[in-house]
Amino acid sequence: MTLFAGLSFSASAAGPASSDANVVLVHGAFADGSDWDKVIPLLQAEGVHVVSVQNPLTSLEDDVAAVRRAIDAQPGKVVLVGHSWGGVVITEAGAAEKVASLVYVAAFAPDAGQIAGEIGKNHPPAPGFAHISADSGGFLRLTPEGVSKHFAQDLPASRTAVMTATQGPIHSKAFEQKVSTAAWKTKPSWYVVATADHMIQPDLQREMAKKIGARVTALNTSHVPHQSQPAKVAQVILDAVRQSK
After folding, report:
1. Tens of pLDDT, residues 172-227
2. 14 pLDDT band (50/70/90 cuts)?
3. How many Å apart are CA 99 and CA 95, to the nearest integer?
4. Secondary structure, 3-state, the chain
5. Are 91 and 183 in contact (CB under 8 A)?
6. Could you give the percent of the chain with pLDDT greater than 90?
7. For residue 4, what pLDDT is reported?
8. pLDDT interval class at 3 (50, 70, 90)
9. Secondary structure of residue 73 in the 3-state scheme
10. Which of 151, 169, 195, 239 is deepest in the core (most CB within 10 A)?
């Protein structure tokens, strides 16, 4: 039996008929699309059309392809938002013509030809890295302690337990794949620095934000400011939306 027998699909059916405010959210490693669940309703309340991508986390190419599909499905200009590893993805995928601006949330912002694994090599290792484990297939996960004490140490235990259970493992090879283009060189950028981050050193975040010429907002949060201070992160995204029309 064919599950979709008798059904027809239109490539143009996705998304509303018209909109001048579209936001595509890109999660990072050790997460999934629901990682943005506190920010999404705040954006929707302002009339913004929002899509949260489900990255396969199998390679940089696969994640970029997933994001490009989401961008292509939008009816108008896109503000592209990336958290953590998602910053690498939006740096590449953000070159798409529909993308008006980029928002980095405690995220990597590599240059063309750079790999994520070498970013920050001149900085001390972030404490959370000691709590990453690999399985036999080469996929990386954060330990429960890594999530509760280093990834999201400003969230309650009930929340970090769920985040641990639902995390998306990322293949280690993704961190060794080169970015072919740096969209921030041609697109206006915003950056949310998480000043109590244990996964990407705050000084490194400030360094990257300066390098890409981003408008910077500093928040006293863990690696997940969109979870602990969602209203402030939403305001940064809305600022990008308003200035990208």
Report:
1. 999 999 999 999 999 999 999 999 999 999 999 999 999 999 999 999 999 999 99
2. very low
3. 7
4. CCCCCCCCCCCCCCCCCCCCCEEEEECCCCCCHHHHCCCHHHHHCCCCEEEEECCCCCCHHHHHHHHHHHHHCCCCCEEEEEECCHHHHHHHHCCCCCEEEEEEECCCCCCCCCEHHHCCCCCCCCHHHHHEEECCCCEEEECHHHHHHHHCCCCCHHHHHHHHHHCCCEEHHHHHCECCCCHHHCCCEEEEEECCCCCCCHHHHHHHHHHCCCEEEEECCCCCHHHHCHHHHHHHHHHHHHHCC
5. yes
6. 87
7. 39
8. very low
9. coil
10. 151
Q: What is the dihedral of CA 67, 69, 75, 77, to 10 degrees?
A: 30
Task: Please give the C-alpha separations between residue 12 and each of 54, 83, 91, in angstroms, as whole numbers.
Answer: 20, 28, 26
pLDDT score for 122: 85
CB 50 within 8 A of CB 72: no
Among candidates 130, 134, 128, 125, which has minimal Cα distance to 147? 128
Q: How wide is the angle at C-alpha 211 spanned by C-alphas 205 and 212, nearest 5°?
A: 95
